Amino acid sequence: MPAKNDGPAAAGPQSSKSEQTRALILETALRLFQERGYDKTTMRAIAKEAGVSVGNAYYYFDGKEHLIQGFYDRIAAAHQAAVREVLDRETELEARLAGVLTAWLDIATPYHEFAVQFFKNAADPDSPLSPFSPESEHAREQAISVHREVLAGSRSKVAPELREALPELMWLAQMGLVLYWVFDRTQGRERSYRLARRGARLTARGVALARFRVLRPLVLEVHELFTDFLPGMTKALPDPARERGD
């Protein structure tokens, strides 16, 4: 979630100082979450460690949940910047997707222990920390937009029935990778990197196969599955059964 004082009016030295204070509070919170755990860390403790008043901490963040949203936004922005090189260079879908997934793992590496600490909160479907929550929409849309760009810039031709749904499906696959990464205890999270590359290869092959007419009934069935169950997709895609007159 953007800072409360973000916007065109917040410019110049005052804005710079404001952003520094906001970043300090966020960095302090992430450190305390990792050291003490999310549940045991209070806004008062964060403010004290950051050297700001409690009121000042609440000026930038409404509560601990919004601090996590700030973390999500930071990761999403860093990821968008990190993937620029591979997306500008590669045109093969497998290489583009593998680059995007491994870039996320690179960026998230310093936060692995923190992710383990707060995973139980993010896994709660009713929690605002869930990646599927309304509060996480901004970071979620940033992440899905990266996958839209992965597809748009590749030479692979995508079956029309899947073109709109695939970016969100690819993001869901990335969430599966994140879950695996949280529990990965191999040196350097080596298995997570292998999973990212093999998952990218499988996705690219699936996209290529989906273009064959003999697989069209299966593609339509998969499309129905996406439409019915992917978050938000029921409003974005037409009902394929209705289109066929079933």
From TrEMBL:
InterPro entries: DNA-bd_HTH_TetR-type_CS, Homeodomain-like_sf, HTH-type_TetR-like_transc_reg, HTH_TetR, Tet_transcr_reg_TetR-rel_C_sf, TetR_C_23. This is TetR/AcrR family transcriptional regulator. Keywords: DNA-binding. Gene3D superfamilies: Tetracycline Repressor, domain 2. The keyword rRNA-binding does not apply. Residues 42-61 bind DNA. Pfam families: TetR_C_23, TetR_N. One of its GO terms (molecular function) is DNA-binding transcription factor activity. Residues 19-79 form the HTH tetR-type domain. It comes from the Bacteria.
